[in-house]
Amino acid sequence: MKRDIAEQLLRLNLQFYQTFANHFSATRQRIQPGVRKILPEIAPTHKVLDIGCGNGNLWQALVSSAFRGAYVGMDFSPELIKIAAAAAENVRSGDLSIPKPIFFAADLSGADWRSETPDERFDWVFLLAVLHHLPGIALRQKILSQIASLMNPDGRLVVSVWQFRKSAKLSQRIQDWSMINLDQNDLNAGDYLLDWRSGGRGLRYVHEFSEAELHFLAEMNGFSIRSSYCSDGDGGNLSQYQVWELAK
Asked: Whole-angstrom Cα distance, residue 214 to residue 178?
C-alpha cells in the first residue's frame, strides 16, 4: 500500500474516534466474551499493557476480578483516554487500595510510541480490535516488532480482529471507496470502508484478516500462536482471537 493512502486511512480513523468518542464508548460498556475468557489467566500482580484501550473497560473488568498489578492503557484518541481516566478515578474513589492505572494518548503509527510507555516489560499485552485498523502489512509488522520488545520472555500478546462479514447487519455497512475519493485498486485485498450510524454518520477503515494472514504476521515478528478461537456477536463468531507468545 502506498504511504499516502495509508496515511489517509489513519487520519480517517483518528477523525472517527475523536468525533464519535462518546457514542462509541456508550456501545462498549463491558468487555466482550472472548476477552473475558482470558481474564482467569492473568495473575493479580501481572503487568498489563492495553493498546487501543478505548474507554478503559478492560481495566475495570480486571480490577473487579481482584487484579492489583500495574496497568498501562494507551489509545490514539485523546477523547477516549479522557473517558477512560475519568471512569478509573470514579472506580478508585470507592477503593483507594486499587493501584492507579496509567492512561495516555499515543499514535501507534508514530515514529516511536514506545518512548511514551513506562520502562517496563509486560506479562500481558492486549491488542483488541486494533490490528484491523492498521493499513498495510509494513505498518503492522513494524508495530508488532515494537510490541515484542516490550514483553517479558514468557509474556502473552492477545490479538483480536473482526470477522464482520459473518454478520449480515455489519456487512450492510460496507461502503464504496469513492466516498473518500479512493479506488479499490488503491487498497489491498481484505480492506473495507464501513459506516457508523450512532450519533451521526461516520466512516472507518477496516481490514478483514484471514487466519493465514494472522499466522504469517505472528511468525514474521517472532511469535508463535498459543491458542486461537472465535467469539462475540450473536453467532459467537464476530471476532477471531489469538494468544501469541514469543517464539523460543
From this structure: 28
pLDDT of residue 57: 94
Q: C-alpha grid cell for residue 164? A: 464482520
Gap between the Cα atoms of 217 and 238, Å rounded: 20
The neighbour count for residue 113, using CB atoms within 10 Å, is 18
Q: Are 239 and 233 in contact (CB under 8 A)?
A: yes
DSSP state, residue 82: H
Residue 237 CB neighbours (<10 A): 14
Secondary structure (3-state) at 178: helix
pLDDT tens-digit profile of 22-78?
Answer: 888 877 778 899 999 999 999 999 999 999 999 999 999 999 988 999 999 999 899
What sign results for the dihedral spanned by CA atoms 74, 76, 82, 87?
A: negative
Q: Rounded to whole angstroms, how far apart are CA atoms 165 and 33?
A: 19
List domains and CATH numbers for the chain: 3-163+210-246 (3.40.50.150)
3-state secondary structure of 160: strand
**Beta-strand runs (E) in the chain:** 48-51, 71-75, 102-105, 122-128, 151-162, 174-175, 191-196, 202-207, 223-231, 239-246
pTM: 0.94
